Fold each of these.
Amino acid sequence: MASFEFSDEDLKVFFEETEELLQAMEDDLIGLEKGDEVEARLASIFRAAHTIKGSSATVGFTAMATLTHSMENVLDRLRKGQTNVSTAIVNHLFTAMDVLRKLTADAAAGRESNEDTSPVLGLLEMDLEEDASAAPAEATVPPAGAATAVAVTAAPSAEAVVVAATPPWAGLDLDEFEKQALQDGCARGDTLLGVRVEFHPEAAMLSVRSYQVYLHLEEKGRLVATRPTLSEMEQEKSGAVLTAFLFTLEDPKVLAGEIENIGDVRLALVEPVGPDGLFRAESPVLTPSAPAAVSTAGTAVSVGAATPAVVAAPRPTGVPAARSEAPAARSVPPAASAESGASAKAGMRTVRVDVELLDNLMNLVGELVIDRTRLAQSMGLLDKAVDSQDSDVTRELAEATAHVGRITTQLQEEIMRARMLPVETLFKKFPRMVRDLAQKCGKQVELIIEGQDTELDRGVIEEIGDPIMHLLRNSVDHGIEPPVARASAGKPPVGMVRLSASHLENHILITVEDDGKGIDVEGVKSAAVRKGLVASELAARMSTQEALQLIFVSGVSTAEKVSEVSGRGVGMDVVRRNVEKLNASIEMDTTVGVGTRITIKLPLTLAIIRALMVQAGSGTYAIPMASVVETLIVAPEELKTIHGAEVIVNRGQVLPVHRLTRLFADTCGGDPRALVIVSVGGRKSGLLVDKLLGDQEVVVKNLGLFLGSIPGLSGATILGGGEVALIIDVQSLLSPHAAMTAREELIA
Amino acid sequence: MEQAVRAKELQLVVFQLANETYGVDIAKVSEIRELQKITRVPRCPDFIEGIINLRGRVIPVVDLRTRFGLPAGERTANTRIVVVEIGGHTIGVIVDEVLEVLSVAGDAVEPTPPVITGLEADYLLGVAKLDDRLVILLELDRVLSRNEQSALMEGAYANGALDKAV
């Protein structure tokens, strides 16, 4: 059996499925702790653990199987009400899931895991022992869900034997050896069960699932025959149906319930079979019923329902029905949900695509976009050059050009949409983080998540995770007060942290809001002054918004100090940096004693940005519009110097001025006439350029590994004429000047 | 390496650089382009001439003269960009003129004479004698290797390329 080989595809599905199940378990566990829909969630977690146990055992990851088995034991007691849900148990289960994640990651990477499962196994064992004395007698009672929810009770009575002539395993083509084994067993008076298991037809790993059922049955008694046979399973010839004959003392109802808990099983039919029924099934009179064995699931259900046999279809039994009502059900593969009819179709309409393929498509479309511009330009030239006699040809060409243009635009939009993911993929990891953190800080926090269906570019989602994490951490750690402090402030003891995503025009807003103590703006100011970040006179003149921006300033070792006073600032410079890297902006709103709201405004995609095109010296550059505050035309005499550094007075503020040609050591002099006011980390400075060329959408191209990352540049873009322009990264362009800027402000 | 060179016949793209003739393995060359507009990239090592648009892709272009410390040459109608694929990177290399594609018998290649030592000897595979000409065989992977490139990068910063910028 160890020789059973799994294809890479099977393993991939296994890992993906495990990840999805773990996520679902996590969601349910958090819900469980809150006390909502306890039964449904317990059932769901139990089922997920069971599925992981089964499939990991099947593919040979025994450490995972052992661990999930232990979890299952604990969950089973919870489910039966023999143990109460306590924080300790939930923590242990979380720990177990973390270990499972690591095991999965190691297995997926194909490396031997050095993860030690014994500590967590010990914890789970402890949970079991603690309540073992409470209700030892109940331990042998079959799972409540399976036992109570079965509508029709069937005993191995005479009636059952009679109708057993028609069950779907009738007509099973047994070989002589198997027939002999059946006859012998029946002659001895052993109880024979006929088993018919139907899988969701679109399930990805039918052979693995069949094998799982096989292993399960084999454990329960003497397995006489299965179709597909073991060797067929090994050759991946399994279909959506598995039939088997088993001599066992197990209760058919219990067995059906257990099988039905195996992943992708949509129907398990277990029925006692008498020797008569068995062999009559093979008689020609009854062959008309044979097609039922290969018919669709729908038919099989009705057969089962009409038969006084034990039917454990997902819907009718208590456990799975409750599960499918739990919100977490959606994160389980659609194939496993109860409404298989609808979801099966939905499942077939989606295709898993490699991310790299999408990126390549996006690149190709980017090129098309450039060519579209070129084509339009050439068309314009041609129109002028060709005289009117040839107008038919030019018109034809003009139409084609316009059409290609439209198609390209559409294609670009579609591909961009294909790259979008709901932020849910990101948000779902936060409830656990917030829970753990709140527990550690001794606070009560409720995390409300809204707008998780909002879609964002995959690239943005990857980058925005860290900033959101920092913000949430700040809210819980520094924003929300301890319960006692909240009570004395007249607030409910449970603090609220709201994480939401929403769409606003061409942007996505991500908001982190808390009802904590807010930020003491004066405290921030005085800390910044003390650290020499700003002059005290300047601080006094600062507006609240400006002062709040100080939180984001990473003053070498000062950030920590600022945070001590303000209760904020941990990682805030990181937040700002990441957010600006995305060409996004960040806003903050706070009221002392009431709470803080931070909003990140993100672009929809990173692949195409809006940029201000400028000419400086010998080059054309693109400055992302997100960094641009305003543009001015300046006369040379407007530029002043302070201690040799150029500055300009703009709206009453003294701003440092940098010549782009000088920053880029461009010897080609140029004639700087235009000033682009940019904002980095809330500080404004002027970039002196020769000419403003207007703003346009540019397709961002990577500079490539060979050039690596060059401070001041974030990439390049190809202009309509085919030439390459550099995209400026304002933040890294000006960052060496941060210290200087601070000094300049001090002087000011 | 040298043995491999001697063992079989080599197909070389032969080009002129200053007054010397060089050859590179044709398998590394993906195309030869006429000089096109090169966008200068600031804050880069000197020998990186800039970036160009290669059918929608942005690729770096290296001036081999600068890389070898030769005096800057004039760009003429014969100047070419040899596009090579090296270690997963597509890189353009500026040469004075592409002369021909040559087949050279392995035994016509001699090891690099000991007059050339150090770093430079590393990227010279040998010298092919052809009638009265000497073709210097270049190992472009090493000429343009990442390590060397980043070392040069650091050098550039250490030498104050950034300070200059400020």
Amino acid sequence: MNWSQLVELLPVGVVLAAALVVVFLQLVLPAKERYVLPMAAMAGCLLGLGALAQNYLSLNQFLKGGLPWFAALAQPSGHSPAILNGAFVIDGFGISIAAVALIAGALSVLCASHNDDDSALGKGEYYGLVLLAVAGMMLLGFSHDFLTLLISLEIMSVSTYILAGSERENVRSGESAMKYLVLGAFSSAFLMLGMAFVFGATGSLSLSPVFLLPNDPRNYLVMGGFGLILVGMLFKVGAVPFHFWVPDVYQGAPTGVTGLMAVGVKAAGFAMVARILLETFGAPVFRFQWTGLIAAAAVVTMALGNFIALRQSSVKRLLAYSGIAHTGYLLLAFLVQKNANAAMVEESLRAVSFYLVAYGLMTLGAFGVVSLTREDGRTLENLEDYNGLAKEHPALALCMAAFMLSLAGLPPFSGFFAKFMVFRSAIDNGFVLPAVLGILTSVASLYYYLRVVLRMYMPEEGSVAARCQYAWTSNLLIYASGLGSVLLGVAPHLMMGMK
Amino acid sequence: MVPLAEAGVFGWLLGLFSFKLVSCLALAGAIFAIGAWGVLARRNVLVMLISVELMLNAVMLTFVSFSRALVNMGPQLSNPYAAEGGQIFALFIIAIAAAEAAVGLAIVISYFRNRQTVDTREIRAMKN
């Protein structure tokens, strides 16, 4: 075992260290100097991004000898030598997941930093827990072993359970935390039992492909284990039929935390899905058996998420159902045909990582805008509260409109290209019907996204004008995500490393 | 199992404790099912948390018994040391269960202070 390889996990180490520093500062700083806390947490996120960039550059050099710049993103599963006997690998896919997690953490920190009431939001432990959750997500992106996968998943989940309930005097926040906790722990138990079955059949905890002869009786054990793991994974990413916790948890949690859950937790969950589906159970004999299940889950998830979102009056709940629908689109990318070669699997992994980055930017921006529309320490989340936002805050409304159109999948925003990649990957692999249904539901989704835009630009007669807090830090992040959404939509090859 | 007449009372008792993978798995499955039923059917959040702990214990038992069975297979495995991973996994699950229990109780107490109830029929402030 080569301990010096641990240096490659420096980004995670930086974030963990920042978490400890923030909690310690909360103890020693007098109350009026607490404004340092969000700065320290932001510094942690930025240093983590810096260390991640360093990782990316060295990986790139390892794969292609320095040039071109996008080599590591063009082959997302190409990795440098595994760390700690294969417990972790650093590859382009993991790096993009970790980047999404860090940006989501930064948004959570900023959303709480302009919170002036007396709840646990905006205290040291809040920032510490955000950073811990981010560290868990990053580790989940890199882990390559059932043990490290589970530990990082739990670091992430337990921190988010607490964060969801961090508005202690708000009944909804407590309810959200309680539902998330019970259902999250319940689903982890299924995941763990599935891991136990696979371990029993193969005698190894590694995520490397399961290989058994077709007539081996242990195949039944692997099938059972796979079913249990699938239940646990679909729970974590919020796919139908295990989606029922999503709307309540997203609506009740403080908006910054909802952003972290909708983006970071989902990206980390899909990192787990990608590793387990495409690698551990990626052998053609298994793939033949799960593609049908995943296709069914994807179609039902897209349809249900979009159609329930049509009649939501709360923007947070609307975004929660839209998140469920996007889970469905993302699942389409995993539909790889039975006799696909390595290049096609690589292509679908690339579609997943592009979708997660694009979806992450637009959803973070949208939740950023939602977190700013507050009054007297209370988040205004109903559609009516967005009446005439364009008149009061033109730049914010413009960004919100961009995020909504991007989520709907209109060009020239990143959402269009993300959906295009996913649908093309499904059609290339012969899953035409799920892809066509995906396109149809995504046209239907235009209705509810446009409702938000219409409210902002054409307020109803006699309505109260929108009220919005101003915080330059959050605004900066929202503008940056808006710019990113446009940039990835206009020049997607920046992230695809091709064409 | 060796008949009582052949093994003698002492040997028969030892035989009761000898390792049987199938019986361990059956026990684990039963505990897991009881836990899952508890989470789905009971209405008190505290009881639901206890049921989750029960499920985690069943998972631990599964890991430990598989690990024992695999170690017994020993030389037939490509990497005989990997089988010890099950024992390590069980240790980590203990830590995870402890963390979840601590956080869960804290969340339940914090909710109880606001609402004076932890009955799932009363917990529905949010609706479509």
